[in-house]
Specification:
Elements: H1 6-22, H2 32-46, H3 52-80, H4 82-96, H5 99-114, H6 118-125, H7 138-185, H8 197-222, H9 230-240, H10 250-260, E1 267-270, E2 273-276, H11 290-318
Antiparallel strand pairs: 1-2
Length: 319
């Protein structure tokens, strides 16, 4: 059998989430996203130009190669033995999810902040954001980290699971390739404004439904924690999300800001150039380093809801 039933896909999703929670991304294993990034860079070096048409060809070639190679691996192993196919799917789907990695990256910033070490905190936050970090205060470091965790609940959790549910590892990896393209060439600068246009727009398209579902899940998670406010999260989405330059990122960011009673967005610097971002949420209090932990709790809560939904789907399938 070349195609999977919904029951098989749900079991693979459950196993992939477990793999990511426990193992994450081991350094000793070759990571598919690194290989995708190398492919993108190779194609760009050979096939770059300041035109939208070349950018469209870039995304077509990368997505075709990614999807075809993933399909050959998973279906080829399944042809040898069904369990080999399942294992390949679980590993590849887990590689598109980054719950553990996102949590660890945020904690790398939080730990030095807790001990008053701004130098290390600036270094580690520089690993996860593109803005200049040399002159950030503790509050600005916290804001950058909370924004990153909030936005990546979509990219690192909901979207990969959403596309894996529809098409197992091949579609999950197609999404991850799109997201990698956006992170590498989807910039509005002189070099990539036209060449990266297709990558940025297609990433927006693929994240459209998952981002809105993520906003809903953040509201639900906020119902079960006394430190969060679900009504404020919902109202913040309605009031602020559309002001974000991204059609998707503003939803989880404003939801987290509303849930915590803080304000995200504002003044950032990129290579010495000031950029004013729309502000998300109403600042009922100042940001503090514990908000990094709160954002991790929201990430964990959303992940648990997803796992619960998968298990409920399996249970319903057996009834």
């Amino acid at each position: 059998m070349l195609f999977y039933s919904i029951e098989e896909i749900l079991w693979m999703l459950a196993a992939a989430m477990m793999v990511d929670w426990i193992i994450g991304d081991p350094k000793w294993l070759p990571h598919p996203v690194i290989l995708i990034g190398q492919m993108i860079k190779t194609i760009e070096n050979r096939w770059y130009g300041k035109s939208k048409s070349l950018g469209i060809w870039l995304i077509v070639v990368v997505l075709l190669l990614t999807t075809i190679s993933t399909s050959i691996i998973t279906f080829g192993l399944q042809f040898i033995h069904p369990w080999l196919g399942y294992i390949a799917n679980v590993w590849l789907i887990a590689a598109t999810i980054a719950i553990k990695g996102l949590k660890e990256a945020a904690l790398l910033v939080y730990t030095p902040l807790k001990h008053g070490d701004l130098s290390d905190a600036k270094k580690y936050v520089g690993y996860i954001v593109g803005r200049d970090t040399d002159h950030l205060s503790e509050e600005e470091i916290t804001r950058a980290t909370v924004e990153t965790v909030s936005e990546n609940i979509v990219d690192a959790v909901i979207s990969p699971l959403f596309y894996a549910l529809m098409g197992a590892a091949p579609l999950a990896m197609l999404y991850r390739a799109t997201n990698t393209l956006d992170s590498m060439v989807g910039y509005k600068n002189d070099k990539y404004e036209h060449y990266g246009w297709a990558s940025a727009r297609f990433d927006d398209l693929l994240n459209w439904i998952p981002a809105r579902f993520t906003g809903f899940l953040i509201v639900v998670v906020s119902l079960f924690n006394k430190n969060f406010n679900s009504l404020r999260a919902w109202k913040a989405i309605q009031q602020f999300a559309h002001q974000h330059p991204s059609p998707n990122s503003g939803i989880p960011e404003s939801a987290v800001a509303g849930a915590l009673g803080i304000q995200l967005g504002g003044r950032n610097m990129y290579e010495g150039i000031v950029s004013e971002r729309a502000r998300m949420g109403v600042a009922l209090r100042d940001l503090n380093r514990n908000d990094i932990l709160h954002s991790i709790h929201i990430l964990n809560g959303v992940s648990v809801l997803c796992a619960g939904g998968i298990l409920c789907g399996l249970l319903f399938n057996y009834l």
